[in-house]
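Bench notes, afternoon.
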Amino acid sequence: MVYTINARDLVISHGNDPRYWKWYTDVPSGFEVAELVEVCWFDIRASVPSRDLPRGSSYSTYLVFKLSAKPRGLEKATASVRFSEEKAKGTDNEGYTVSIDKSQDSKDPGIHPQPRSDGWKELNLGDFVNNRGRSSTVEARIFETSDTIWKSGIIIRGIEIRPN
């Protein structure tokens, strides 16, 4: 079972401000997507109640996206997947470095985007095992908020959570 959080259901910083993000239906796929116009503060989050996923199962979480003709400032970002109680214990800016715009071959498929058969790309944001109680929440996040470089040119379809 694939659990999909569509773009409209994500928490996107400045996502409702048309100066920064534009929303439309992607004609080939039929999905409503969010296209980054320009922003310095890039931050996208998805939350899923752990009770919605079978307990004891292992999952991988992916950002599903395309790049426009001229993406900018998307060379690196930080990705994380964790449970709500872990987030409360650590800082909100923990994670590992990923590259959104470097579509190069890599021995580690979790660091660089991988092409999909449907024409989109996917980037592994992290893995987890759903071993928490029914009151926990899994949060996936990708962000780049530490520099003042303007970012543009990513088209977000959503985040997928798939069993391993």
